[in-house]
Amino acid sequence: VAAAAAVSFAFAAPAVASEGCDDGEMVIKFSHVVAATGHPKGDAATMLAERVNKEMDGKACMQVFPNSQLFDDDKVMEALLLGDVQLAAPSLSKFEAYTLKYRLFDLPFLFQDLNAVGNFTDSDAGKGLLDVMQDVGYQGLGYWLSGLKQFSANKPLIEPSDANGLKFRVQTSDVAVAMIEAIGGNAQKLAFKEVYGALQTGVVDGQENTWSNIYTQKFFEVQDGITETNHQVLAYLLVTSTEWLDSLDDETRTQFLTIVDEVTKAGNDAVAKKEAGNREKIIEAGSVVRELTPEQRAKWVEAMKPVWTQFEGDIGKDLIDAAAGSNS
Ligand code: LMR
Questions:
Q1: Neighbours of 295 (CB within 10 A)
Q2: Whose CA is nearest to atom 2 of ligand 1?
Q3: pLDDT tens figures, 81-133
Q4: Ligand 1, residues 31, 32, 33, 96: which to mutate, most atoms within 8 A of Cβ?
Q5: Element (H, E) at 120
Q6: Which of 70, 84, 107, 174 could form a disulfide with 31, with the two C-beta atoms 3.0–4.6 Å apart?
Q7: How many whole angstroms from 129 Cα to the centroid of ligand 1?
């Protein structure tokens, strides 16, 4: 029994920002799936923990569990309701079981850059979407941006027809499945931690993700190259349970949410530079990054655009128009 306890303790020990919690401190566990450092989400989670542990010392203590070491993104949603963790930040593609509204964020070529995403998430329409899962027990605390997604495969992808017949890993998102089918590919939903192995063993031929994920998970090592399509945003919802948030006294809640807002802003402001840096590191590591001409890119847009109408009923045309309007 003692040995088993020691093993499970080692497994659950936070790898980042573990100050060890003092007696009487409320423990806030934050589980996520990406690298602990050098990644927009990993770095923002660390920043949040550092601030909470300093400014709420004696009252609260945050522990961060990166790299899917505690839960993957499916399991973490249950863990929030069970009180096993208090914070998570799954990508907005992974909430289909709880709301269909976030399908908005997966529409291909909706946002032309991260500024447009920020314009939308800061708008009333964007902020309103933080509250849409209250009836199922979740509260969105903020949007953590991560970057635009790029395609890669085990062969060069220049035109959408190059994807014909290839198998692509996608997140647990029906919009992503429709998008892959629109270019003649087969989509396979896989947990993030399984992607490298699936690419390496040929279970799938390709994937789509941000520069930061492609670099920190080393996907480039097992792909022919990366095509700079910028076809979709990857953004996270920093999410907690309504039960936990309601359980905090007013002063603690206000202090915590103020820190969350400030870290959200600082983290989002740092994303573009981090993404550009990780793109460079992929090139330095010897991988090929293929840029598209405007004509080539237009073909990807044309092939994928029908996906918008397919999901308009779930999302609502007003919301799509509001998001598309944030591009200017
Ligand atoms: C993915 O599954 O590809 C991403 O959601 C992982 C992440 O959190 O960036």
A1: 8
A2: 192
A3: 999 999 999 999 999 999 999 999 999 999 999 999 999 999 999 999 999 99
A4: 33
A5: helix 114-122
A6: 70
A7: 20
- Contacts of 298 by beta carbon, 8 Å cutoff, 6+ apart: none
Lookup result for tokens 């994928």: 304
Q: What is the ipTM of this complex?
A: 0.98
Whose Cα sits closest to atom 1 in ligand 1?
A: 192
Side-chain-side CA neighbours of residue 172 (13 Å): 17
Q: Which two tokens stand for residue 245?
A: 């948030």
Q: Is the CB of 33 under 6 A from ligand 1?
A: yes
Structure tokens at 144: 């953590």
What is the 193 CA–ligand 1 centroid distance (Å)?
Answer: 9
Query: Which region among 14-23, 126-135, 297-306 has the lowest average model confidence (pLDDT)?
Result: 14-23
| CB 119 less than 6 A from any atom of ligand 1 | no
Does 171 sit in the ligand 1 pocket, CB within 6 Å? Answer: yes
Give the number of other CB atoms < 10 A from CB of residue 38.
15
With CA atoms as reference, report the closest residue to 212 among 143, 281, 116, 286.
281
